[in-house]
Specification:
This protein is an alpha+beta fold. The chain is built from 10 helices and 25 strands. Helix content is 30%, strand content 28%.
Length: 516
């Protein structure tokens, strides 16, 4: 078999393995909300996870999973706060659309959902507390009047976040929908920065409805930051829009819930790292544990068994008990590991073959070039018979430095230039050249480097990096237009170029891609 045919066959095998991995992976699960009560912690995840393979660690210690599954399967409750801006800056043309939108939410209220309606301007007014009653909610909506001269958006959101507690010992998922035009005149009270900090720490989703006279061409950057930091969604409400489409944006149908038992000796009010994994999805975040005196575990004593002459029978009984206590491993337990291992071996084999071919060609090219140079030199000066090569430093001094320009996909005006004379690390750690304060990103997520080509590699063992929608499993060459997804942040490669001045557009290590 020729080398070309072998490489083609190997590529076909890799494609089949990639399709198999894609088909077996759910992916896309992200943390949405978490809160603790006594020794229990309730965790809500946007997206589905595999309950049978689920494992949780608190500060690298295994935690007991008490219950897990889709929120709807456990009779869980969704409590939605609808927060309406009633300042006079709200466009007159859109005010009726706001009431129609709230009416659509009420009409389509889920069987497990409760809604609270509140208005804000210079002050906050709760028109009706959490209820499932459509009539009461509709009556409260009719009392909305847009008569406040100014609004304090961030103060209103901060002060209407409810206490996060379970309801009748069943899970309860909380969220807020803010309907506003984004005009904020806060002079006192909670600032935007204080609210964003709270949302980052407390994982509470804020969904934004931006109200306007006509369809907005670009999102309000402050409102978009509010939705993005909290893990919420964003939509535009204007007179000609489809109310049904807008009201369907903020569904809570695919919320996965798990309740874990926290280790008793960690309940001291400290902040600990939580790791959740189901073999496909991996979620990591920090959470402050409650202060609680956990009850001492019950110690059960096993009655002594008097040794009798039936030693052989007792031995058989003991072996039977031990066998029953051990779970028999099945192929399903190792299926994913086998697939991944096969893919890794195939990639390694392919890399070895390609490397061998490249080295072979380089040797041939080098010999040919050297012979040519020697021949030419011999014609001019028979005493000079050696080939001279430029060092990397000499090449860089002539050509300049390779650079890359990156842009955050959700914000057109947010671009950065970096010189690739050293590794460009992206992650949550402040030592990274690109520091992103985002819980879905690892401390060291991925690395971009230059060795004749611009290369990207994944560094994280807990969170995946995607290149153009595909999981990054090895070193890949970056091209202009490629999209790099780290957690919930997507970066676009805008340009790859050489700068004579060794351009270095360093990003402040303590900043993030969110303007706050």
């Amino acid at each position: 078999m020729s080398v070309k045919r072998f490489i083609t066959l190997l590529f076909a095998i890799l494609i089949v393995l990639a399709l198999t991995l894609t088909a077996s992976a759910d992916g896309g699960a992200v943390l949405s909300q978490v809160y603790s009560h006594e020794q229990n912690m309730d965790i809500f995840i946007a997206g589905n996870m595999n309950s049978e393979r689920l494992s949780v660690k608190v500060a690298n210690r295994s935690a007991e999973i008490l219950e897990s599954g889709l929120l709807t399967d456990f009779g869980g409750t969704v409590r939605t706060t609808v927060l309406v801006d009633i300042s006079t800056s709200i466009p007159i043309e859109a005010r009726e659309s706001i009431k129609k939108y709230i009416g659509a939410i009420i009409e389509n209220i889920g069987s497990n959902e409760e809604i609270r309606i509140a208005t804000f301007g210079e002050k906050i007014t709760v028109l009706h507390e959490f209820t499932h009653d459509r009539y009461d909610l509709s009556s409260a909506t009719s009392d909305i009047n847009f008569d406040n001269s100014q609004s304090m958006i961030y103060d209103a959101v901060y002060n209407t976040i409810p206490e996060l507690i379970s309801v009748d010992d069943k899970p309860c998922y909380y969220r807020t929908v803010v309907i506003t035009d984004g005009v904020d005149v806060t002079k006192t009270g909670i600032t935007k920065e204080e609210l964003l900090l709270k949302l980052q720490n407390d994982t509470y989703p804020i969904n934004i409805i931006e109200v306007s006279k006509t369809k907005v061409e670009s999102e309000n950057k402050d409102l978009a930051a509010l939705a993005r930091v909290s893990g919420g969604a964003y939509a535009n409400l204007y007179p000609e829009c489809d109310i049904g489409v807008v009201s369907s944006v903020f569904t809570a149908d695919n919320v996965f819930w798990l309740r874990i038992l926290l280790p008793g000796d960690l309940l001291d009010g400290s902040t600990r790292q939580i790791n959740i994994d189901d073999g496909i999805n991996s979620i990591q975040f920090d959470s402050k544990l409650p202060v609680f005196d956990a009850p001492e575990p019950e110690i059960t004593t096993t009655p002594e068994v008097t040794e009798t002459a039936g030693t052989e029978l007792g031995s058989v009984f003991t072996e039977s008990v031990e066998t029953n206590q051990k779970e028999k491993p099945s192929f399903e337990d190792y299926k994913l590991v086998i697939i991944i291992a096969s893919a890794v071996l195939a990639v390694i084999l392919l890399a070895v073959i390609i490397s061998a071919i490249v080295i072979r060609k380089k040797k041939k090219g080098h010999i040919g070039t050297e012979d040519s140079v020697i021949s030419q030199n011999h014609g001019k000066n028979s005493s000079t018979e050696k080939t001279e090569y430029l060092t990397d430093e000499e090449i860089n001094s002539i050509l300049g430095c390779a650079c890359i320009r990156l842009r955050e996909l959700s914000a057109e005006n947010m671009t950065w230039d970096f010189a690739l004379d050293k590794d460009l690390i992206i992650g949550r750690d402040t030592s990274c050249r690109i520091c992103i304060a985002e819980s879905s990103i690892s401390r060291r997520q991925c690395k971009i480097s230059y060795n004749g080509k611009t290369i990207i590699e994944n560094l994280s063992t807990s969170n995946i990096t995607k290149l153009n929608g595909n999981q990054l499993t090895g070193a890949e060459v970056l091209k202009v237009g490629d999209q790099i997804k780290c957690g919930r942040i997507t970066l676009s490669v805008e340009s790859l170029y050489v700068s004579d001045s060794h351009n270095v557009g360093e990003l402040n290590k303590l900043s993030s891609f969110i303007n706050i």
